[in-house]
Amino acid sequence: IATKLKELARRHRDTTIIWAHIGLGRVVRPVEDQLGMVERGLRDPESKNVHFDISWDETAKYLVGTPEAVQVTAALINRFPERFLFGTDSVAPRTQEEYMKTYELYAPLLAELTPRARHLLLKGNYERIFDEARRRVRKWEADNKRR
Q1: Phi, psi of 85 (to 5 degrees)
Q2: What is the DSSP letter of 14?
Q3: pLDDT tens digits, residue range 109-121?
Q4: CA–CA separation, 69 vs 119, rounded Å?
Q5: HEC letters along 99-132
Q6: Quick one: CA torsion of 111, 69, 117, 97, rounded to 10 degrees?
Q7: How much is the pTM?
């Protein structure tokens, strides 16, 4: 992972960090060995609180742009299925078809994932991370209630 993100993860070990778009976007192109960098971060025990979101069609065009990219990305998600999240991240979709565009772009990748990895990517990790966040917020609210 990028040095600054590693530093952030270490400073805030009890905070769940989700790196949106796996660091990619319309303006930000993959750096050399982008997925290798992500994998090194995933292997770093001090960055275990960092998760990666693969949402957005701009991100998909890099992760499924070639058969090799699909294979490398699927292998990474299959090795670390608890650390990836999916999202559409559609910008102002006007129709159901527009809303589903990102999901459809990822069809080649989803086909290469194990059933467990696909479930965790599409739903399981979101449920685990956000349910825990809600629990922690409610606990904090209860612990800090004005009397």
Answers
A1: -130, 150
A2: T
A3: 999 999 999 999 9
A4: 21
A5: HCHHHHHCHHHHHHCCHHHHHHHHHHHHHHHHHH
A6: -60
A7: 0.86
